[in-house]
Design goal:
Order of helices and strands: HEEHHHE
Shape: elongated
Number of domains: 1
Number of helices: 4
Radius of gyration: 19 Å
Strand order of the largest sheet: 1-2-3
Oligomer: single chain
Length: 90
Amino acid sequence: MTTSKKKRLIILLVGVAMMLAVYLSAYYACVSIQFEPLQHQPTVEIAYAHYKAGPLSEEFARRFFEPARLCDAYYLRPHLWEDRQRTSVK
C-alpha cells in the first residue's frame, strides 16, 4: 500500500468518524426521553423519544434518527430507556 493510499484511507476513516459524531450530536441535541402510562397497566410507564422539532419536521426527525435511537436504547444508555414502575397512581 503506497503512502497516498494510506493517507486516503486515513482521511476516509476520519471523515466517517466525524460524520458519526455530528449525527449522534444532532440526535442528542434533538431528543428527549419521555414516559407515558401503559393503557392496560396504569402503574407501568413506557419510554418513548420526543423530538424537539416542529410538527411538520417531527416525522422526518423520527425516521432520520431511528438508527441513533436504537443504538442509544440498546447500547449507549439502556438504563434510561427501561420501562419503569410507578409507585402511586394519580
